[in-house]
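Q&A log
Question type: sequence-to-structure
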Amino acid sequence: MRLAVIADIHGNAAALETVLADIAARGADATVCLGDIASGAGWPRETVEILQEAGIPCIRGNHDRWISEHDPGKLGMQDRIAYEGLTASQREWLMELPLTLEPAPGVLAVHGTPSSDVQNLIEEVVAERLRPAPMAVLRERLGGAGMAARVVLCGHSHRTGMVQVPGGPLVVNPGSLGLPGFRISREPAHRQEAGTPHARYALLHLCGERVGVELLAIGYDWDRAARRAEEHGANAAWPHVIRTGLLPESA
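Response status: OK
Response body:
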């Protein structure tokens, strides 16, 4: 079985359309989405429509939850754009998405960790950057459900990575499909940059006891996505990171 894994779209329908076309060209048998679907300075309504029309199973991410849980007047820029762009039924659909999925036997899909949508699974913050978490921390975050799985799929951090846990699962983060960098000011303050503007996703090859993984970076019309963010009046860092994969201070 070939399973495509997408995560952290953040309303970037331009990237999503290109990646889904690439997934189809590679002949994947199924696709799963790990959440943070609509929140962003892009096309929130269209992003949800694409996923719904394609029938792609999705997990609820923290931003998918925040759009409905938080006071609309106090939402941050990306969540406010999503709230205003989505229909009431789309917001309800996002809120009712499951926290975990099993897209294939022995494969556990989560947004952050099996028990939290705001905790990174394979990284921790060191000097305001994401670094690999110690194995003991990773095992604790996986918990019983994660350690019992063959493969655990996670998103949230936007950082592409793989870790084979001794005596436990292979953990795969495909990276962000639609937002290659961000800066978080709340504690623990940190930043993440992919270094290029490509749309990331993963393709798992599940062949008996063997698991192969392709970590893919796909070119798409990121200038179109950046212009869309500018039309929304997003802060300057948002279109910059979409065009470059870097925050302005790094470039």
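Response note: Residues 2-241 form a domain with the Purple Acid Phosphatase; chain A, domain 2 fold (CATH 3.60.21.10).
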